[in-house]
Amino acid sequence: MKLNIAILPGDGIGPEIITQALEVTKAICTKFNHELTYKEALVGAIAIDKTGNPYPQETHNLCMDSDAVLFGAIGDPKYDNNPSAKVRPEQGLLKMRKELGLYANLRPINTFPSLIHKSPLRPDLVEGADFMCVRELTGGLYFGRPQGRSEDGNTAYDTCVYTREEIERIVRLAYKLAGQRNKKLTIVDKANVLCSSRLWRQVSQEIEKEFPDIETEYMFVDNAAMQIIQWPKRFDVLVTENLFGDILTDEASVITGSLGMLPSASIGIHTSVFEPIHGSYPQAAGKNIANPLATILSAALMFEYAFDLKKEGALIRKAVDASMEQKIVTEDIAFDGKAYSTFEVGNWIVDYIK
Amino acid sequence: MKLNIAILPGDGIGPEIITQALEVTKAICTKFNHELTYKEALVGAIAIDKTGNPYPQETHNLCMDSDAVLFGAIGDPKYDNNPSAKVRPEQGLLKMRKELGLYANLRPINTFPSLIHKSPLRPDLVEGADFMCVRELTGGLYFGRPQGRSEDGNTAYDTCVYTREEIERIVRLAYKLAGQRNKKLTIVDKANVLCSSRLWRQVSQEIEKEFPDIETEYMFVDNAAMQIIQWPKRFDVLVTENLFGDILTDEASVITGSLGMLPSASIGIHTSVFEPIHGSYPQAAGKNIANPLATILSAALMFEYAFDLKKEGALIRKAVDASMEQKIVTEDIAFDGKAYSTFEVGNWIVDYIK
Ligand SMILES: CC(C)[C@H](C(=O)O)[C@@H](O)C(=O)O
Ligand SMILES: CC(C)[C@H](C(=O)O)[C@@H](O)C(=O)O
C-alpha cells in the first residue's frame, strides 16, 4: 500500500517524540512492504515565529494532500499568561480542526498494569478500566457565532450551536465504535438546562433505534464528571459535545496514571490527525527525556483508522507492551531508577519491530 | 437575635433531612437565646403536583420575606428520562436562583478522617484536603439569551453571556473568602477559546490588584478537571463561571468520599439559600435512612453566612464531629454494621447541643 503522510512536529518536545514515531512508522512500512512518503510542515508557536501564522496555508495544503497527519504538540510558555495575545498557537490548532473537518476526537483510555500505582485513584477502581471517549471537535462554543464584546467592552458572549447533521455524524460514529467494543454507549449532555443538549438528546434517541444491539445510556455532564472517578470501569464508549469533551477527556486521562502513554485520533472529513494527548512540555524540550510512547501509539491508531491496517497497529502495540515489560522506558514511568532516553526507547521499539 | 427563615423541604428525602436540620436549628436558637420563626413552602416536583409550578409565587414571596432559606432537595424519577417535559422540577430551581439573585454557590470541600477510605482517590492524596469552590450561579449558558431552535428545528443554540458587574461581584467574594482562609485563589476559565472567559480573566486581573496579599493563579478548566483529582490539596479557594462550576464542584465533591456530608450556601442579593449538595435520593424517601448531616451542616453555614453567628455554626460542627466519633451515623457511612436512622442521628445531635 502507498502511505502518504504529513509530519507536524510543532513545539517543545514535539520534534523529539515525532522523530521516534516516524522511525517506528518507517520500520512498520518496511516490514509490511508499504511504500511510505512523508513531508514535514510547521505548526504552533514555531510557525508563528517563522511565518506569523500558527497554521500556515502551506501546512494546510500539505495536510489536504496527505492520507494522514502525525502531529506532535503545540504551545510555548511565552503565550501562557496572555490569553488575549493577537496570535496564539491554539488558534492554529482550532483552525486546523475546522479546515480539515476534524469532527471527532477519539481518546482510548486504558491502563497499563505496571503504571497503576501512578494513578491518583485506588488501584482496584482503575485496574482494567478501558473505555473510549469520543469528543465532537468542530462545533459548540468553540466555533459558534456570534462571539464578541458589547461596544463598551463590558459584556462578552459566546454562542453554542449544534446542527442535526453534526450530532448525527458523531453519534453514529460512537455507536459504530461501541459495536466493535463492549456494546455500551454513554451519551453525555446537559439536556436539563441547554437547548443544544436537548437537540443532542432528541437526535441521539432517533439514532439509538438504528443500533438495537447497543445499550444506550444518557447522562448529565455533572454526573459524568463524578462517575468517571467513582466507577471508571462502568464506561465503554462515551460521546459528548466539544467543551464537555474537553473537560471530561482530560479528567479521564489522569485516572490511568499514564498521561505520557495516551494517544488520540481526530477523524476528519478530508484527512485525519493522530497525536498524543499530552502537551508540548517545554521544560523537557531538547533534553532527550520525553516519553515517546503516546506518539508511537498515535502512529498505531493511524495505521488502524486512516489505513485500516490492523496488523500493523497491533504490532506497534505489542512492541510498546514489550518495551514496558523489559522496562525500557523514559524517566516519567521508570520503575526502579533506570531510565532510558527518548531516542533509546524509540530505537528499542524499532529493533523489536524489525 | 430574631431569625426568620423559610423551610423548603422539596422532594424525595428532602422532608426527612430538613426536619432534622430544623430541629437542630431550634435547639441552637434555644441554647443561644435567639427568637426563631419559620414557615414552610412548596418547591420541586411536589410543587408541580400541587400547583403546576415548581417554584410557586407564594414560595417566592416567603423566601423574599425571610432572612434565610433552608432547602432540602428536588427531583423525581418521573422527570428523569424526559428532559424536554414542559414543566420540570429543575426549572423551579433555576427560577429561584434567578429571582432571589443567588449569584454565588459556595461549596466547602473537606474530608472526614473516618470516611477517607470511602474516597475513590488514594488516601494520601485526599487526607487533609480542604478547599472552597465558588460557582457563579445566575449567569453564563444557564440564563443567556437567545436560546432556542431554528424554524426547521434542526439547529439549536444557547448563549453564554457575562457582564463585568457579574464577574466583579463573584471574584471579589472569592478573594474575601480566600482572605479568611489560606490566601490562595484559583480562577478557572477557558480564556484560550472563549470570549466570555477572556472578560473573566481581564476583570479578574484588575481585581487581583485590590488583594495583594492573596496569591492568584489562573487555570484553564480542562487543567482544573485534572488537578482536582491529581492534587486536591493544592487548592484553597477556586472560583469559576456557572457551567464549569456545575461540572467541577460535582467532580470535587466525590473526592472526599463523603457526598452525604457536604453542605452548600447560595449567597443571594435578596436572601441566601442553604442546602445539601446531594440530590433527592428517591429510592430512600420515607424510609428514615437518609443521612441528615449535609443538611445539618448547611444549617451551620446558615448561622455563619446569613446571620454572622459564628459560635452557633461552630457548635453544630462540633456536634456533627462528635456524632461521627461516637459512630452515631446512618447506613451510608456506618462503620461496622451498626446504622442509625435519620431521626436517631438528628436527635443525638440535638441532645448534644442541649
Ligand atoms: C489548546 C486548547 C484550545 C485545546 C482545546 O480546548 O480543545 C486543548 O485543551 C485540547 O483539548 O486539545
Ligand atoms: C438540576 C440542575 C439544573 C442543577 C444545575 O445544573 O445547576 C444541578 O446540577 C446543580 O448543580 O444544582
UniProtKB/TrEMBL annotation, chains A, B:
Record's catalysed reaction(s): (2R,3S)-3-isopropylmalate + NAD(+) = 4-methyl-2-oxopentanoate + CO2 + NADH
Cofactor: Mg(2+); Mn(2+)
Residue sites binding Mg(2+) per the record: 222, 246, 250
Ligand binding (substrate): 97, 107, 135, 222
Gene Ontology biological-process entries: L-leucine biosynthetic process
Its biological purpose: Catalyzes the oxidation of 3-carboxy-2-hydroxy-4-methylpentanoate (3-isopropylmalate) to 3-carboxy-4-methyl-2-oxopentanoate. The product decarboxylates to 4-methyl-2 oxopentanoate.
Name of this chain's protein: 3-isopropylmalate dehydrogenase
This enzyme's EC code(s): 1.1.1.85
Pathway connected to this protein: Amino-acid biosynthesis; L-leucine biosynthesis; L-leucine from 3-methyl-2-oxobutanoate: step 3/4
EC class: oxidoreductase
Organism superkingdom: Bacteria
Cell compartment(s), UniProt: Cytoplasm
MF-aspect GO terms: 3-isopropylmalate dehydrogenase activity; magnesium ion binding; NAD binding
UniProt KW keywords: Amino-acid biosynthesis, Branched-chain amino acid biosynthesis, Cytoplasm, Leucine biosynthesis, Magnesium, Manganese, Metal-binding, NAD, Oxidoreductase
InterPro entries: IsoCit/isopropylmalate_DH_CS, IsoPropMal-DH-like_dom, Isopropylmalate_DH
GO cellular component, one term: cytosol
Pfam families in the cross-refs: Iso_dh
The Isopropylmalate dehydrogenase-like domain, residue ranges: 4-349
Cofactor note: Binds 1 Mg(2+) or Mn(2+) ion per subunit.
Xref: NCBIfam families: leuB
Chief localisation class: cytoplasm
Subunit text: Homodimer.
Family: Belongs to the isocitrate and isopropylmalate dehydrogenases family. LeuB type 1 subfamily.
Residues annotated as site: Important for catalysis: 142, 190
